[in-house]
Design goal:
alpha+beta, Alpha-Beta Plaits, four-stranded antiparallel beta sheet, 4 strands
Length: 223
C-alpha cells in the first residue's frame, strides 16, 4: 500500500513538473492570453439619443466585423450611448457600423465626427496590484496560525510546507492557463483565490490527521 502511495506521489510530482515546464515555455514564447479588456484595443462611442437594444448593436458589429472579438457597452446615465471596443477598428468598419445604426434607429450620427480611440493594454502586474497587500496580510496570519496550531509537527516545517505548496499550486494554475490559453480576465483572481483556499483546506486536513496520530501516539507512550 505504501509503495502504491509513493508511486502515485511520484507520478503527480512528475506531471506537475511537466506542466510547469510547458507553462513556462508557452509564457516565454507566446505569452499569456489576456482578455480583450486588457489588450491594446480601439474604441468608438456612438450617441444614439434614444433607447436601443444591445443585441441590435451586437448584431451590427458582428456583421461588419465577422469573427472579431468585441465588447459592447451601454454608456451615459440614460444609457442612450454605446461604446464599441475591438482589437482593431478601421475607418471603413467605423463608417459601416454608423451607417447601419443610422438606418436601424433613424439617427444622423456622423462618421467624420466620430473618433477611433486607442486604448493601451493593461499590464499583468497592474491587475494583481490591488490584491497584493491584503493577500500578503492574510497569508501571514494564516502561517502564524499554522505555526501555533501545529507546533507539535514542527512550526518551521509546517510554515515551509504550507508556503511551498501554495506557491506550487499557483504556479501550476498559471501554467495550465498558459497552456490551455484560458484568457486572463475578470475571473482570474477569483480562480486564483479558489485554488488558494482549496490548497489551504487540503493542507489543514493533512496536518490535522498527522496531529491526531501524533497525539494518539504520545498518549499511548504515556500509558
Amino acid at each position: 500500500m505504501e509503495k502504491i502511495k509513493k508511486n502515485k506521489k511520484t507520478i503527480i510530482i512528475a506531471l506537475l513538473i511537466l506542466i510547469v515546464i510547458a507553462g513556462v515555455i508557452v509564457t516565454l514564447t507566446v505569452g499569456l492570453n489576456f482578455d480583450l479588456r486588457y489588450q491594446d484595443t480601439k474604441k468608438i462611442e456612438l450617441y444614439i439619443g434614444k433607447t436601443f437594444e444591445y443585441n441590435d448593436i451586437k448584431n451590427i458589429v458582428n456583421e461588419v466585423m465577422p469573427g472579431q472579438d468585441n465588447i459592447i457597452q451601454k454608456v451615459e446615465v440614460f444609457e442612450d450611448s454605446v461604446s464599441i471596443i475591438a482589437k482593431d477598428i478601421t475607418d471603413e468598419q467605423k463608417t459601416n457600423i454608423i451607417n447601419k445604426v443610422n438606418e436601424k434607429y433613424g439617427t444622423e450620427i456622423s462618421a467624420d465626427s466620430t473618433e477611433i480611440t486607442k486604448i493601451p493594454n493593461t499590464r499583468g502586474r497592474d491587475i494583481v496590484k490591488p490584491y497584493i497587500m491584503p493577500f500578503t496580510i492574510a497569508t501571514l496570519i494564516i502561517l502564524a496560525y499554522m505555526a501555533v496550531r501545529y507546533h507539535k509537527l514542527g512550526s518551521i516545517k509546517t510554515i515551509i510546507i504550507t508556503t511551498l505548496t501554495c506557491v506550487i499550486a499557483q504556479i501550476g494554475l498559471l501554467s495550465i492557463m498558459a497552456i490551455t490559453r484560458i484568457p486572463i480576465g475578470r475571473f482570474t483572481i477569483p480562480i486564483v483565490l479558489l485554488v488558494y483556499l482549496l490548497t489551504l483546506v487540503g493542507l489543514t486536513t493533512n496536518f490535522e490527521n498527522k496531529l491526531k496520530l501524533k497525539i494518539e501516539k504520545e498518549n499511548k507512550n504515556k500509558k
